[in-house]
Amino acid sequence: MRTEDEVLIVGGGIMGLAIALELKLRGTSVTVLSRDFRQAAAHAAAGMLAPQAEALPPGPMRDLSLQSLEAYPEWVRKIEDLSSTDIGYQACGILAPVYDAPSDTPNNSSTPARRWLDQTAIHLAQPGLNPDILGGWWLPEEGQVDNRALTGALRSAAESVGVTIHEGVAVTDVERRHGKVVGMRSPTGTWQAQHYILATGAWSQALLPVPVQPLKGQMISVAAPMVDAAERPLQQVLFGPDGLYLVPRRDGRIIVGATVEAVGFAPHNTPAGLQELLSKAMRLFPAIAQFPIQECWWGFRPTTPDQFPILGASPYNNLSLAIGHHRNGILLAPITAHLIANLVTTHETDPLLPHFSWERFLSPMVPSPATASPAPSSYSSPKSMSQPSTLPSATPTQTDLTVARSSDRPLIIAGQTFHSRLMTGTGKYDNFEVMQQSVAASGCEIVTVAVRRVQTKAPGHEGLAEALDWSRIWMLPNTAGCQTAEEAIRVARLGREMAKLLGQEDNNFVKLEVIPDTQYLLPDPIGTLEAAETLVKEGFAVLPYINADPLLAKRLEDVGCATVMPLGSPIGSGQGIRNTANIQIIIENAKVPVVVDAGIGTPSEAAQAMEMGADALLINTAIAKAHNPVAMAQAMGMATVAGRLAYLAGRIPVQGNASASSPLTGRIGKA
């Protein structure tokens, strides 16, 4: 699918829509691709406009937030006029009560925009607070907006001025060439434009290697008694000292939020999450215990390590970023739209934008959540394989590989994110020490383990389960040695249990091998397909080892396999890539990652496979049986990165004639 529009925005949430509206009002043609409008983080928010209640420290983030707050009234009027919708904007002020008296003298730091109320004053301002509340801050210039009404009105406003919105379009890949984005690939085709904007929220890392992770938030609404506005039990937005907030709407609802959970994209409300919200809410405002629960929901905040957004330029000169707004997306929508529209239409870079550049995460001085603005006490760093493994004895070369990988999107298999595109094995090494050192030197994050050999304690595999740190390395159990589909299915089930016993509770991966041929070790295509169909239905992420057969690869993808793994040449042969044409066809047609497995003997062959466009490699024998396995492992890791970078860079065309490197004009003539 092609579009001739000037700007293509990926992401139909509040950021994408706000930017689209601003650009269209400036005369720019805009198309928005929305994966699922209902999943946008803005739907799950409370709509607070609270930069000072959030206690943002002095600096660029507070400046950005205050500018956006100042722009809100005019921005709201524009959206309401275009959409004919009341979006519930209220400059009602926010109360931030505290249970413990501040150590300093609060009245000395009071300003017109931030005034301290002592115990008597705060209970007069909002009756019904917990008697233990000793005071709090009154922030009269802050307020709220009905986030759901805002998001719907923003979409209507954008459509009313001519923004084209395509719903249900999931972008799966960013096509890049020569330092530019040349298209956004989706199941419906490739979308093209002159300029691209990424506004994909918590899902951004699936398209670019940016450190944006989901932080889940659960929320509840309760129904307060329907009385006149002046008699409503809760008159003000309350922002509690423990991160809880209560937001009263005009229709009588009170929004209670929100948990902060590092659980990836785990859906649904949980008893623990709802209990946490209700207990904090009843402590802060006891009367809420008697109000009926109206609705429960959840959403995913897009969060960076320093909890500040990523705005502006990207690694590609025609791609702009508007992602990572954490819990301030509603507040920051007006200023984000303004700054990005300026950047796209006039190439104007606001002095604030460099502070929110993606490049700040390339520096070793990036603050962690522990040293950045304080997160709520319930925040915990996600223990996830989506971060690069910290392997022992890192060398400068490995650090260089990490930096090189940062220019590429990560490898995603069955929802798990990996930054290394090299997988290795554990067999054929002389001893465990050499294997451990080789795995570390390769920089790999996925290691395959033969389940049958571990289960039976085959020679060389005793104690293998304890030989590697599985909290840092993702285990890929394989069904090596299975000659039938039935055997492979049984062994795959054992492999899943083995991974769970080693602490990888969510590991459903299996490398599927069905190999009845004992001489050439060629996989059985029929048995592989039969086993894959069964294992996919049982919830496995199946990575099937196959001949380089494009039709079989397509069938396996259609039944739900997480990857396809065509062999370059027979296992352990070191013959290199003997099936180039067929592997190229598989790569061109696959919508799942293609992993070249078996036969690679040298780093140049590893680079060749990656230059063809393979997503990853699995290499074992070439490392384990080298004269120096550790050095070869490091070389294979470097070759994998080099081949991938070469593929992304794009090689020069092959020509029949020579072409001089130096220009033929302007030469010094003969005397």
Describe this protein's structure.
By secondary structure, the chain is of the alpha/beta class. Among the domains are: 1-87 and 144-208 and 305-381, FAD/NAD(P)-binding domain (3-Layer(bba) Sandwich); 396-403 and 415-569 and 577-649, Alpha-Beta Barrel (TIM Barrel). It has 17 helices and 29 strands. Helix 1 runs parallel beside helix 6. It is globular. The termini are far apart. Mean pLDDT is 85; it is low at 363-400 and 402-406.
Provide the low-confidence segments as ranges: 363-400, 402-406
Structural class of the secondary structure composition?
A: alpha/beta
By CATH, the superfamily of the domain at 396-403 and 415-569 and 577-649 comes out as Aldolase class I
CATH overall fold name of the domain at 396-403 and 415-569 and 577-649? TIM Barrel
Q: What is the CATH level 1 assignment of the domain at 396-403 and 415-569 and 577-649?
A: Alpha Beta
Strand content: 15-25%
Sketch the major β-sheet: 8 strands, mixed
Taking the alpha carbons of the first and last residues, their distance comes to 60 Å
- Radius of gyration, in angstroms, nearest whole number: 28 Å
Mean pLDDT across residues: 85
General shape = globular
Number of helices: 17
- Corresponding CATH architecture of the domain at 396-403 and 415-569 and 577-649: Alpha-Beta Barrel
Brief characterization of the structure:
With 671 residues, the chain is an alpha/beta fold. Among the domains are: 1-87 and 144-208 and 305-381, FAD/NAD(P)-binding domain, CATH 3.50.50; 396-403 and 415-569 and 577-649, TIM Barrel (Alpha-Beta Barrel). 30% of the residues lie in helices and 20% in strands.
